[in-house]
Amino acid sequence: MYHQYFKRLIDIVLASILLIIFFVPCVLVAIAIKLDSVGPIFADTPERVGQFNKHFRMFKFRSMIVNAHHIMRTDPTYAKLFEEFKNNSFKLNNDPRVTRVGRFIRKYSLDEVPQFINVLRGEMSIVGPRAYYQDELDHQSQKYSDVKSAVHKVLSVKPGITGLWQVSGRSMVNFDRRILIDAQYVDSMSFWSDLKIIFKTPFAMVSGRGAV
User: Fold this and answer.
1) Which stretch of 73-82, 100-109, 113-122, 150-159 has the lowest confidence by average pLDDT?
2) How far, in Å, CA of 203 to CA of 212, rounded?
3) How many CA atoms, within 13 angstroms, populate the side-chain half-sphere of residue 65?
4) What's the domain range around 170?
5) Residue 212 lies in a domain
């Protein structure tokens, strides 16, 4: 079957090629991150929920201040913002934790490039559903209880670097709509649907539409 064998072969080949292509931009991004703010090059975020609820560390360039994930959830000064964050499907249009370099690399999805490492490790796919944080998944599943079956379906496959919802509106799409779009992708997953999404992805990256 495509999703068991051929899809994995495509992932390995594409991830290897793209890591080579993006090597120089990645070096420049890493230097910019170190010059712009104090902290590691890669994001210090909690693990994500992968296929069959297995947790894994997602590699992303750091686009926020150090310990941003923990600060948002525990610092009283961020309490009001955290409520807005949860009510807005775990997204903020003007997140004060984002650095200057972070705003640029997030707009053009350059922070996502290290995820090709996750693809080579077998934790992610080039195309697939979004990889969620556990607390995000728990909260949103309670808020939108009618999409629990869609959540279960989405977690039956590997999460992707890009996917159907990313090329259909990206962060402008709320959780319930995003999950249903990803479940739709799982139902119709094929070589041709993946190829179509892959070809659409560069246009979504260059436009920066919907990125936060």
Assistant:
1) 73-82
2) 16
3) 7
4) 2-207
5) no
Residue 89, pLDDT score: 67
Judge whether residue 170 has pLDDT over 70. Answer: no
Helix (H, G, I), strand (E, B) or coil at 173: coil
Residue of 24, 57, 18, 2 lying closest to 192 (CA atoms): 2
Q: E strands, the chain, where?
A: 48-49, 55-56, 125-127, 132-133, 160-162
Q: Would 72 be classed as within a structural domain?
A: yes
In the numeric block, which tokens belong to residue 61? 């360039």
Kind of pairing between the strands at 48-49 and 132-133? antiparallel
The CA-atom distances, in angstroms, between 125 and each of 70, 90, 131, 161 are 27, 23, 11, 7
Q: Which of 164, 154, 153, 161 lies closest to 121, judged by CA? A: 161
User: Is 163 among the domain residues?
Assistant: yes
Q: How many domains does the chain have?
A: 1
Residue 77 placed within a domain: yes
Can you give the pLDDT at residue 171?
56
Question: Is there a contact between 142 and 37 (Cβ–Cβ < 8 Å)?
Answer: no
Contacts of 114 (CB under 8 A, 6+ apart): 26, 42, 59, 60, 61
Q: What is the pTM of this model?
A: 0.88
